[in-house]
Specification:
- This protein is α+β, with helices and mostly antiparallel strands.
- It contains ten helices and 14 strands.
- It has two domains: 148 residues, 2-Layer Sandwich (Chloramphenicol Acetyltransferase), CATH 3.30.559; 182 residues, Nonribosomal peptide synthetase, condensation domain (Chloramphenicol Acetyltransferase), CATH 3.30.559.30.
- The longest helix has 20 residues.
- Helix 5 crosses helix 10.
- The strands form three sheets. The protein has a six-stranded mixed β-sheet with strand order 8-14-13-11-9-10, sandwiched between helices.
Length: 422
């Protein structure tokens, strides 16, 4: 009998595993909208084959004694469960699938820790990919879905070349708020009595950016997010404080060699209250250029995925159960210094996600990231077919659905404001 291959949990996976909370599951949700219909048997076959083409996704948490030094992933030759399901069509099928993606995490004990639901609304098809974020991230699973699309439809789903950036010119680093100061929190809205996360998705025009601009669309989205939260906090009487926005950076290739797992590193982009007080068109080019300088500098710095502190805490020198208790304690103690929010900009979806003549090519793709307290709010964006797809996800302990709708309106307003000074 072949002994399954085991892989120690990387730092990101271990920290996430230590801090699991049943009331706020750590899920990533991806929804892909197609114009046509899919054949169930063909899709199951294609997706299963895609899992085998990326075998690192076929894994489950290995059992172990309490005094073990590491958690380990156990790679499996086949899925433990049927990954693809077809919920009964109905008027609320889309809403119910979004709810399941937020409240029901695929178990780590079964391989693979993802599920794919195929929902059929009045027209077209929506693929819901729900991911246990302790094991995997959105870009990795989108790579697997692109492979499945190619196997299903026979179309080339190779990634497009990344956009060409304007040459970088040396700029003086502007003064930034100290990372030792406590950042602003998203002000309390109207929380809901039920635990977990709420979600709102919307489609917006991509912001205009002059050719050769020193900033990117990502910088415009970063500024938009900062201005949105600063406005929200002013409305709710919060004392002005510096904002820090966590930004995932993903340096992995997008072709079939892409490493599968949690592959992004996190950096924090700071903003002072003074920078976000002036929202006039005349101030916007300065704020965009400053933001571009900061994001470029942060991306270029070599840094462990979660920083040096996480690497130290996860060193396998004591039993993993002891480290779990320490990590949870440190997380609670560090809560006041946690960044204000997270902006995850996937950018232009690099794959056509073309499922062939009958099902067609994706015309909208949304992602959402977990929104556990103390942040309580995450902003995730992607662009498909020349449109921006925005997902706002929040902890119900902080905000309600009406708050999410207002934040969406503020985001749309400030996204246009970033164009005003161009």
């Amino acid at each position: 009998m072949t002994v399954p291959t085991r892989i120690p949990f990387p730092v990101v996976d271990e920290v996430a595993r230590h801090c699991l909370q049943e009331e706020e599951p750590e899920t990533v949700h991806i929804e892909v909208h197609l114009p046509g219909r899919l054949d169930p048997m063909r899709l199951r076959k294609a997706f299963t084959e895609a899992l085998h083409r990326h075998p690192r996704i076929l894994m489950r948490e290995a059992r172990g004694r309490w005094y073990r030094r590491r958690y380990e992933w156990e790679l499996t030759a086949e899925p433990d469960v049927e990954v693809v399901s077809f919920p009964t069509p109905g008027r609320d099928a889309l809403r119910d699938a979004r709810t399941r993606a937020l409240v029901e995490a695929p178990p780590l004990s079964l391989s693979p820790p993802i599920r794919l639901e195929v929902v059929e609304p009045a027209s077209g098809t929506v693929l819901f990919l729900t991911i246990n974020h302790t094991a995997l991230d959105g870009p990795a699973c989108l790579r697997v879905l692109a492979t499945a699309a190619e196997l299903y439809g026979g179309k080339d789903n190779s990634p497009a070349a990344p956009p060409v950036r304007a040459p970088e010119t040396p700029q003086e680093q502007p003064l930034t708020p100290s990372n030792w100061s406590k950042p602003a929190r998203v002000a309390q809205g109207t929380p809901e009595p039920s635990p977990g996360n709420g979600l709102l998705v919307t489609e917006l025009p991509l912001p205009h950016r002059p050719k050769g601009s020193p900033y990117t669309v990502n910088d415009q989205l970063m500024v938009t997010t900062a201005l949105t939260i600063a406005h929200w906090n002013r409305e709710h009487g919060a004392h002005p404080r510096p904002l820090r926005i966590t930004m995932p950076v993903d340096d992995r290739p997008r072709d079939t060699t892409m490493p599968i797992g949690n592959g992004t590193r996190l950096v924090e982009v700071p903003f002072s209250p003074d920078e976000l007080h002036d929202t006039t068109p005349a101030h916007m080019p300065t704020l965009l250029r400053r933001t571009a300088t900061r994001t470029r500098a942060l991306k270029s710095l070599p840094r462990p995925q979660l920083g040096h502190g996480a690497t130290l805490v996860t060193a396998p020198v004591t039993p993993v159960a002891w480290r779990a208790a320490l990590t949870r304690g440190l997380r609670r103690a560090a809560a006041p210094w946690t960044s204000t929010t997270l902006l995850s900009n996937i950018g232009r979806i690099p794959y056509p996600l073309d499922f062939g003549a009958e099902a067609g090519r994706a015309h909208a793709v949304w992602f959402s990231a977990p929104a556990r307290m103390p942040r309580g709010l995450t902003v995730t964006t992607a662009s498909t077919a020349g449109r921006l797809h925005l997902a706002l996800r929040w902890s119900r302990a902080l905000l309600g659905h009406g708050d999410g709708a207002h934040l969406r309106d503020l985001f749309e307003h400030y996204l246009h404001t970033t164009e005003a000074g161009t």
